[in-house]
């Protein structure tokens, strides 16, 4: 079987209605598959005004807003129309990107028909409750995820560190890496713009500590704010540049009141904003890869990140950035202060990160997923001897 023979039904909890690293990776994958001649059909909640146009054919699923996080939608499974569409499409493999209601229903649908199922892990769902004072739910969420993932034929995760976590949690045995790439036409050191910095009140001699990503609590906004407060207490001169938008913006504005908030940035504007930082502070522990970390590295700036899944596979401690134990405010402040005090250290580590980022090519990365599809389909097909025996009967 060739890639052009693939008929992939992709199920996502958020394909394009809110922009994030996970759904942008899925859209890039679909683009790659379509360019190889494969057929792809995407099933996901839809909204009237999505963040960006979908790549490929998108079929809407019934959904409701997530309580307390209305920008996200919670799928309610299949509608009769979506199920009929899936039957007509007749996929030879299912790819499930979210363990939601539709994902569970799609998995059951595939197992009844003997179709292989690949699931991709995009975030540490089991860690989310702790950011909403519901930490007691983590074992329960992990158990639900384990039951779901074990029913799939294989899993892919964005980093070796995340693969190791999934194995330790007993989520499955066939787990491989679907890494992430970076768009070098957007993220590059040459995008740095001193005039843009000055327009935002950041002088040439200022050190801009950057935050990049959606403004949601699970990105470690509290740790970021506490680290900046510790820097102020120590008298470490710095500026704060926040690039992104989200429902926790009001909280973050109160936490870092002196920060420059650019709001959402896209395309060349995003590349300019990231390259115009002096370092990225990424305290999140919910990432499975850390797209923002790779984007900062490609932009030639060092990264201070939590020693957690994703970041540990990207940041080489003491070479491309600094890794800090999650939640260790004094240690985060130490790392940021070291960069604030030493321009040559920022330059050396930023250049090393930019060199490392060149290893991440989207087409090469997405080809590994397509090859996994083909392997799973081949594993479901009977061996030649069995086919001959059936023919003889």
UniProtKB/TrEMBL annotation:
GO molecular function, one term: glycosyltransferase activity
Coiled-coil regions listed in the entry: none
CDD domains linked: GT4-like
Top EC category: transferase
Glycosyltransferase subfamily 4-like N-terminal domain boundaries: 20-183
EC number: 2.4.-.-
Pfam families, per database record: Glyco_trans_1_4, Glyco_transf_4
Keywords annotated in UniProt: Glycosyltransferase, Transferase
Record protein name field: Glycosyltransferase family 4 protein
The species this protein was found in: Alteraurantiacibacter lauratis
């Amino acid at each position: 079987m060739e890639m052009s023979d693939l008929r992939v039904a992709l199920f996502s909890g958020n394909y394009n209605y809110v922009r994030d690293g996970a759904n942008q990776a899925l859209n890039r994958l679909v683009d790659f598959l379509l360019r190889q001649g494969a057929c792809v059909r995407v099933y996901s909640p839809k909204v009237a005004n999505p963040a960006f146009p979908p790549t490929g054919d998108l079929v809407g699923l019934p959904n409701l807003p997530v309580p307390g996080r209305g920008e996200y939608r919670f799928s309610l499974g299949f509608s009769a129309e979506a199920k009929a569409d899936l039957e007509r499409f007749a996929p030879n493999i299912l790819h499930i990107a979210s363990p939601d209601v539709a994902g569970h229903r799609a998995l059951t649908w595939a197992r009844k028909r003997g179709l292989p199922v690949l699931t991709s892990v995009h975030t540490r769902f089991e860690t989310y409750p702790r950011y909403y004072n519901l930490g007691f739910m983590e074992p329960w969420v992990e158990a639900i995820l384990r039951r779901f993932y074990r029913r799939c034929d294989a899993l892919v995760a964005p980093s070796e560190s995340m693969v190791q976590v999934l194995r330790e949690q007993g989520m499955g045995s066939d787990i491989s890496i679907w890494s992430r790439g970076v768009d070098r036409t957007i993220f590059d050191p040459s995008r740095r713009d001193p005039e843009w910095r000055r327009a935002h009140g950041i002088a040439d001699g200022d050190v801009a500590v950057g935050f990049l990503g959606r403004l949601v609590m699970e990105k470690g906004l509290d740790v970021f704010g506490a680290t900046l407060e510790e820097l102020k207490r120590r008298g470490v001169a710095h500026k704060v540049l926040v690039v992104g938008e989200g429902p926790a913006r009001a909280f973050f504005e109160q936490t870092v009141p002196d920060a420059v908030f650019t709001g959402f940035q896209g395309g060349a504007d995003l590349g300019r904003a990231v390259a115009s930082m002096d370092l990225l502070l990424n305290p999140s522990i919910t990432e499975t890869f850390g797209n923002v970390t790779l984007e900062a590295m490609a932009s030639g700036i060092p990264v201070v990140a939590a020693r957690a899944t994703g970041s540990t596979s990207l940041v080489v401690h003491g070479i491309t950035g600094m890794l800090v134990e999650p939640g260790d405010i004094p240690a985060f402040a130490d790392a940021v202060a070291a960069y604030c005090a030493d321009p040559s250290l920022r330059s050396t580590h930023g250049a090393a990160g930019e060199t490392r980022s060149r290893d991440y090519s989207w087409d090469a990365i997405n080809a590994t997923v397509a090859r996994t599809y083909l392997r799973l389909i081949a594993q479901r097909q009977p061996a030649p001897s069995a086919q001959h025996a059936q023919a003889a009967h």
